[in-house]
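Table 4 source record.
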Amino acid sequence: MDDTQDQELTLFRDMLERFIQERVESAYADWEAAGLFPRELWHELGEQGFLAVDIGQEQGGFGADFRFAMAVVEAFSRANCNAIATSLAVHSDIVAHYLYNHGSEQQKQAYLPGMISGACVGAIAMTEPAAGSDLQGIKTTARADGDDYVINGSKTFITNGQHCDLVIVVARTNLDARASRGISLFLVDAKSQGFRRGRNLAKIGLHASDTSELFFDEVRVPASALLGPLDGGFGMLMDELARERLSLAVGAVAAAEGVLAQTAAYIKERQAFGQPIGAFQHIRYRMAEMATDVRAQRAFVDECCRAFAAGTLDVATVSMAKLSTTEMQNRVADGCLQLHGGYGYMSEYGVSRAFTDARVQRIYGGTSEIMKELISREILQ
């Protein structure tokens, strides 16, 4: 970026930090207790210009640099507001970009302006109760019926499931072909007859992010709801996974930076045996180890962000980033909790939230085990 873009990015980050401090931090504990943050926050985020910031101006967006989009994920993750970071990433960095990169002009105009303003919240319904990370195991179907498609099936673990207005549904459209050649994506309005939200699922972390079961019972959508080519859904999913996994890596590093800074402040204040616990060699060395771990992953993620912006980020590299950063986030969150002693186990201390929120990072977006499989295929081919 040039100097002007650097200055704009700095100002944008300052705006994000002020918004989080003034609007989010004081209410976040209440949202965690309630199991989701309020719907009106989406409108406020849109009014501030924090949603889908790198969508083009022709669709009502700002056309900002990719790093502005990642700055949003970083700010909420570093502030230990990971539930909001996750919901925003799904909305802005996944659903909006499926539409922007693969949608028709009519589809883009119908949904993207609302997603940018916060009037339309996006979700993607991919995971199923019996399929997990295995896209080949998808059972949800969409059968052609005249000029329409009729969708039947169920999905689970869907982020933004309670608030969503638009759902991108992954469904089988050719039962005689492998899933890689027989699945399609559909844009389903949450007001569609036959669509039903299940319960808001209880999780061990990310409490303020709504995560739901979704049910589709003879949901009829027009042929114009097909996103991209018929039976071409698998390719689109693969195309967009790089951005999804990179945003998870960005959030992981920022969350680790945040909890490490919080812990550094704590050990300077906490007294034991007549001195701050940060004066003990073991604790100083443990902090040094974690800071080095975070710094190394920051350098790797920044490299990946530059590669993504240049269009050169490959599957193996982004898989390495997702694997290494999320594993690091969990190590650091665990180490920081340990340095808080018994207080780290108390929910009133933010480190406990950082610890429980971190655990899912090694699961969604492709488990650590799936990442290792993808990496090994590349290096052993």
